[in-house]
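Justification of computing resources. Each target in the renewal requires a structure prediction run like the one illustrated here; the chain below, 290 residues long, is used simply to show the kind of job we budget for.
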Amino acid sequence: MLKQLLFYLKVSRPGLWFATLWLYLLPTSQMSTIVSTWEFWYGLFYVCFPLNFLVYGWNDIVDYETDALNPRKDSFWFGARGTKKDLDVLWQAIAISQLLFFPVLIGIGGWEVGLFLVLFIVINGLYNLPEKGLRSHPPLELLCQVGYLLVVPLSIWINNLEGLPWQTYVYLFLFAIQSHMMGEVMDIEPDKKTGRKTTGTILGVRNTKLLIITIVLLEVILLLVVYQEYIFGGILAMGLMWLLLDVFLLYKDKTYSVWEMKLFALMSNIVAIFSMAYVWWSGCLLQTAF
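Resulting C-alpha coordinates:
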Protein backbone atom coordinates (compact mmCIF):
# COMPACT_ATOMS: atom_id res chain seq x y z
CA MET A 1 0.00 0.00 0.00
CA LEU A 2 2.77 2.44 0.97
CA LYS A 3 4.67 1.58 -2.22
CA GLN A 4 1.56 2.33 -4.28
CA LEU A 5 1.01 5.67 -2.55
CA LEU A 6 4.65 6.65 -3.11
CA PHE A 7 4.22 5.77 -6.79
CA TYR A 8 1.17 8.03 -7.01
CA LEU A 9 3.10 10.82 -5.29
CA LYS A 10 5.97 10.39 -7.74
CA VAL A 11 3.51 10.51 -10.65
CA SER A 12 2.34 13.94 -9.45
CA ARG A 13 5.94 15.27 -9.70
CA PRO A 14 6.37 17.18 -6.43
CA GLY A 15 9.41 18.90 -7.93
CA LEU A 16 7.03 20.72 -10.29
CA TRP A 17 4.26 21.53 -7.83
CA PHE A 18 5.55 25.10 -7.58
CA ALA A 19 3.83 26.01 -10.87
CA THR A 20 0.25 25.29 -9.75
CA LEU A 21 1.03 26.41 -6.20
CA TRP A 22 2.31 29.76 -7.53
CA LEU A 23 -0.83 30.26 -9.62
CA TYR A 24 -3.10 29.36 -6.71
CA LEU A 25 -1.39 31.70 -4.24
CA LEU A 26 -1.17 34.70 -6.56
CA PRO A 27 -4.79 35.93 -6.19
CA THR A 28 -4.49 35.62 -2.38
CA SER A 29 -1.56 38.07 -2.24
CA GLN A 30 -1.41 40.31 0.87
CA MET A 31 -4.33 38.48 2.48
CA SER A 32 -2.73 37.08 5.63
CA THR A 33 -6.08 36.21 7.22
CA ILE A 34 -6.96 33.81 4.42
CA VAL A 35 -4.66 31.15 5.86
CA SER A 36 -7.13 30.76 8.74
CA THR A 37 -9.84 29.35 6.46
CA TRP A 38 -10.14 25.64 5.76
CA GLU A 39 -11.30 26.37 2.20
CA PHE A 40 -7.92 27.95 1.41
CA TRP A 41 -6.01 24.88 2.58
CA TYR A 42 -8.39 22.47 0.90
CA GLY A 43 -7.89 24.23 -2.43
CA LEU A 44 -4.14 24.47 -1.92
CA PHE A 45 -3.83 20.74 -1.31
CA TYR A 46 -5.97 20.03 -4.38
CA VAL A 47 -3.81 22.07 -6.76
CA CYS A 48 -0.65 20.48 -5.36
CA PHE A 49 -1.50 16.79 -5.48
CA PRO A 50 -4.81 15.75 -7.10
CA LEU A 51 -4.57 18.32 -9.90
CA ASN A 52 -0.96 17.51 -10.75
CA PHE A 53 -1.78 13.81 -10.39
CA LEU A 54 -4.39 14.31 -13.13
CA VAL A 55 -2.13 16.37 -15.42
CA TYR A 56 1.06 14.34 -15.19
CA GLY A 57 -0.56 10.96 -14.66
CA TRP A 58 -2.58 11.30 -17.87
CA ASN A 59 0.57 12.35 -19.69
CA ASP A 60 2.50 9.36 -18.29
CA ILE A 61 -0.16 6.95 -19.58
CA VAL A 62 0.18 8.13 -23.19
CA ASP A 63 3.93 8.76 -23.08
CA TYR A 64 4.93 5.29 -21.87
CA GLU A 65 7.36 4.59 -24.73
CA THR A 66 9.07 7.98 -24.50
CA ASP A 67 9.33 7.90 -20.71
CA ALA A 68 10.91 4.44 -20.82
CA LEU A 69 13.92 6.04 -22.56
CA ASN A 70 13.96 9.22 -20.50
CA PRO A 71 16.87 9.23 -18.01
CA ARG A 72 15.33 11.92 -15.80
CA LYS A 73 12.25 9.81 -15.05
CA ASP A 74 11.69 7.73 -11.91
CA SER A 75 12.20 10.61 -9.48
CA PHE A 76 10.10 12.89 -7.33
CA TRP A 77 11.49 15.79 -9.35
CA PHE A 78 10.41 14.67 -12.81
CA GLY A 79 7.87 11.90 -12.33
CA ALA A 80 7.53 8.14 -12.18
CA ARG A 81 8.59 5.57 -14.76
CA GLY A 82 5.64 3.23 -14.39
CA THR A 83 5.35 -0.23 -15.86
CA LYS A 84 2.75 -0.89 -18.54
CA LYS A 85 0.67 -2.69 -15.93
CA ASP A 86 0.86 0.30 -13.56
CA LEU A 87 -0.11 2.77 -16.26
CA ASP A 88 -2.98 0.67 -17.63
CA VAL A 89 -4.88 1.09 -14.35
CA LEU A 90 -3.58 4.52 -13.36
CA TRP A 91 -6.65 6.24 -14.85
CA GLN A 92 -8.78 4.65 -12.13
CA ALA A 93 -6.79 6.28 -9.33
CA ILE A 94 -6.81 9.59 -11.23
CA ALA A 95 -10.60 9.49 -11.61
CA ILE A 96 -11.10 8.61 -7.94
CA SER A 97 -8.84 11.48 -6.84
CA GLN A 98 -11.01 13.95 -8.76
CA LEU A 99 -14.34 12.47 -7.65
CA LEU A 100 -13.25 12.66 -4.02
CA PHE A 101 -12.33 16.34 -4.16
CA PHE A 102 -14.65 17.98 -6.63
CA PRO A 103 -18.00 17.73 -4.83
CA VAL A 104 -16.52 19.74 -1.94
CA LEU A 105 -14.77 22.19 -4.28
CA ILE A 106 -18.02 22.82 -6.16
CA GLY A 107 -19.80 23.27 -2.83
CA ILE A 108 -17.24 25.90 -1.85
CA GLY A 109 -16.83 27.77 -5.14
CA GLY A 110 -20.11 27.15 -6.94
CA TRP A 111 -20.90 25.85 -10.43
CA GLU A 112 -17.94 27.77 -11.87
CA VAL A 113 -15.61 25.23 -10.29
CA GLY A 114 -17.39 22.49 -12.25
CA LEU A 115 -16.74 24.51 -15.39
CA PHE A 116 -13.05 24.60 -14.44
CA LEU A 117 -12.96 20.79 -14.29
CA VAL A 118 -14.64 20.43 -17.69
CA LEU A 119 -12.29 22.91 -19.38
CA PHE A 120 -9.24 21.41 -17.71
CA ILE A 121 -10.16 17.89 -18.83
CA VAL A 122 -10.90 19.08 -22.39
CA ILE A 123 -7.53 20.84 -22.70
CA ASN A 124 -5.64 17.88 -21.24
CA GLY A 125 -7.62 15.51 -23.44
CA LEU A 126 -6.66 17.44 -26.59
CA TYR A 127 -3.05 17.45 -25.44
CA ASN A 128 -2.94 13.74 -24.60
CA LEU A 129 -4.95 12.09 -27.39
CA PRO A 130 -3.08 8.81 -28.06
CA GLU A 131 -2.34 9.38 -31.75
CA LYS A 132 -3.38 12.92 -32.63
CA GLY A 133 -2.68 14.65 -29.33
CA LEU A 134 -1.49 18.22 -29.56
CA ARG A 135 1.55 17.27 -27.48
CA SER A 136 3.08 15.95 -30.75
CA HIS A 137 1.87 18.74 -33.04
CA PRO A 138 4.16 21.72 -32.44
CA PRO A 139 3.70 24.54 -31.72
CA LEU A 140 0.16 23.66 -30.60
CA GLU A 141 1.51 21.93 -27.50
CA LEU A 142 2.63 25.35 -26.29
CA LEU A 143 -0.87 26.80 -26.61
CA CYS A 144 -2.21 24.02 -24.38
CA GLN A 145 -0.27 25.58 -21.49
CA VAL A 146 -3.17 28.01 -21.20
CA GLY A 147 -4.80 25.25 -19.15
CA TYR A 148 -2.54 26.09 -16.22
CA LEU A 149 -4.01 29.60 -16.10
CA LEU A 150 -7.34 28.05 -15.07
CA VAL A 151 -5.83 27.56 -11.61
CA VAL A 152 -6.08 31.33 -11.08
CA PRO A 153 -9.89 31.61 -11.43
CA LEU A 154 -10.19 28.37 -9.45
CA SER A 155 -8.38 30.08 -6.56
CA ILE A 156 -10.55 33.18 -6.98
CA TRP A 157 -13.77 31.14 -6.82
CA ILE A 158 -12.69 28.98 -3.90
CA ASN A 159 -11.43 31.90 -1.83
CA ASN A 160 -14.04 34.46 -2.96
CA LEU A 161 -11.47 36.96 -4.27
CA GLU A 162 -11.29 39.82 -6.73
CA GLY A 163 -10.11 39.18 -10.30
CA LEU A 164 -6.67 39.98 -11.68
CA PRO A 165 -5.68 42.41 -14.47
CA TRP A 166 -5.60 40.85 -17.95
CA GLN A 167 -1.92 41.78 -18.18
CA THR A 168 -1.24 39.39 -15.31
CA TYR A 169 -2.74 36.54 -17.32
CA VAL A 170 -0.43 37.47 -20.22
CA TYR A 171 2.56 37.25 -17.89
CA LEU A 172 1.38 33.92 -16.47
CA PHE A 173 0.86 32.49 -19.96
CA LEU A 174 4.43 33.42 -20.87
CA PHE A 175 5.58 31.84 -17.61
CA ALA A 176 3.70 28.62 -18.40
CA ILE A 177 5.18 28.39 -21.92
CA GLN A 178 8.66 29.12 -20.59
CA SER A 179 8.37 26.34 -17.99
CA HIS A 180 7.12 23.86 -20.59
CA MET A 181 9.91 24.75 -23.02
CA MET A 182 12.54 24.10 -20.35
CA GLY A 183 11.13 20.61 -19.98
CA GLU A 184 11.27 20.11 -23.75
CA VAL A 185 14.96 21.05 -23.79
CA MET A 186 15.66 18.30 -21.26
CA ASP A 187 13.58 15.78 -23.24
CA ILE A 188 14.87 16.45 -26.76
CA GLU A 189 17.00 13.30 -26.99
CA PRO A 190 14.41 10.75 -25.70
CA ASP A 191 11.72 12.47 -27.80
CA LYS A 192 13.87 12.14 -30.92
CA LYS A 193 14.54 8.45 -30.23
CA THR A 194 10.81 7.68 -30.23
CA GLY A 195 10.03 9.93 -33.19
CA ARG A 196 7.94 12.35 -31.17
CA LYS A 197 7.72 15.87 -32.56
CA THR A 198 7.83 18.86 -30.25
CA THR A 199 8.83 22.47 -30.69
CA GLY A 200 12.10 21.47 -29.02
CA THR A 201 12.92 18.60 -31.40
CA ILE A 202 12.17 20.79 -34.43
CA LEU A 203 14.16 23.81 -33.28
CA GLY A 204 16.99 21.90 -31.63
CA VAL A 205 18.65 22.61 -28.28
CA ARG A 206 20.24 25.97 -29.10
CA ASN A 207 17.24 27.52 -30.88
CA THR A 208 14.86 26.28 -28.20
CA LYS A 209 17.01 27.95 -25.56
CA LEU A 210 16.96 31.16 -27.62
CA LEU A 211 13.15 30.95 -27.72
CA ILE A 212 13.08 30.58 -23.93
CA ILE A 213 15.37 33.61 -23.62
CA THR A 214 13.00 35.63 -25.82
CA ILE A 215 10.02 34.65 -23.66
CA VAL A 216 11.84 35.51 -20.43
CA LEU A 217 12.91 38.85 -21.94
CA LEU A 218 9.25 39.62 -22.66
CA GLU A 219 8.40 38.76 -19.06
CA VAL A 220 11.12 41.10 -17.77
CA ILE A 221 9.90 43.95 -20.00
CA LEU A 222 6.32 43.38 -18.86
CA LEU A 223 7.33 43.51 -15.20
CA LEU A 224 9.53 46.58 -15.57
CA VAL A 225 7.31 48.60 -17.90
CA VAL A 226 3.69 47.61 -17.21
CA TYR A 227 4.01 46.87 -13.48
CA GLN A 228 7.07 48.99 -12.75
CA GLU A 229 8.14 46.13 -10.49
CA TYR A 230 11.92 46.36 -10.20
CA ILE A 231 12.66 43.80 -7.48
CA PHE A 232 10.80 40.86 -9.00
CA GLY A 233 11.75 42.06 -12.48
CA GLY A 234 15.37 42.25 -11.36
CA ILE A 235 15.29 38.69 -10.03
CA LEU A 236 13.91 37.50 -13.36
CA ALA A 237 16.55 39.56 -15.20
CA MET A 238 19.26 37.69 -13.27
CA GLY A 239 17.69 34.45 -14.42
CA LEU A 240 17.83 35.83 -17.96
CA MET A 241 21.56 36.45 -17.54
CA TRP A 242 22.04 32.82 -16.54
CA LEU A 243 20.16 31.66 -19.64
CA LEU A 244 22.40 33.82 -21.82
CA LEU A 245 25.51 32.35 -20.20
CA ASP A 246 24.09 28.86 -20.67
CA VAL A 247 23.46 29.21 -24.42
CA PHE A 248 26.47 31.30 -25.40
CA LEU A 249 29.28 30.21 -23.05
CA LEU A 250 28.54 27.18 -20.89
CA TYR A 251 26.37 24.44 -22.42
CA LYS A 252 25.52 25.99 -25.81
CA ASP A 253 23.78 23.18 -27.74
CA LYS A 254 24.77 20.40 -25.34
CA THR A 255 22.22 18.43 -23.33
CA TYR A 256 22.27 18.29 -19.54
CA SER A 257 23.20 15.27 -17.45
CA VAL A 258 20.61 13.81 -15.07
CA TRP A 259 22.58 15.17 -12.10
CA GLU A 260 22.57 18.65 -13.63
CA MET A 261 18.84 18.44 -14.33
CA LYS A 262 18.15 17.60 -10.69
CA LEU A 263 20.42 20.41 -9.53
CA PHE A 264 18.62 22.89 -11.81
CA ALA A 265 15.27 21.61 -10.50
CA LEU A 266 16.41 22.17 -6.91
CA MET A 267 17.65 25.68 -7.71
CA SER A 268 14.41 26.46 -9.57
CA ASN A 269 12.35 25.45 -6.56
CA ILE A 270 14.46 27.59 -4.23
CA VAL A 271 14.08 30.62 -6.51
CA ALA A 272 10.36 29.88 -6.90
CA ILE A 273 9.85 29.83 -3.12
CA PHE A 274 11.51 33.22 -2.67
CA SER A 275 9.69 34.64 -5.70
CA MET A 276 6.31 33.39 -4.49
CA ALA A 277 6.96 34.83 -1.03
CA TYR A 278 7.89 38.24 -2.44
CA VAL A 279 5.01 38.40 -4.94
CA TRP A 280 2.54 37.32 -2.26
CA TRP A 281 3.90 39.82 0.28
CA SER A 282 4.15 42.75 -2.14
CA GLY A 283 1.04 42.09 -4.23
CA CYS A 284 3.04 43.40 -7.18
CA LEU A 285 0.99 41.51 -9.79
CA LEU A 286 -2.42 42.53 -8.48
CA GLN A 287 -2.48 45.80 -10.37
CA THR A 288 -0.57 47.51 -13.17
CA ALA A 289 1.15 50.89 -13.01
CA PHE A 290 -1.19 52.38 -15.64
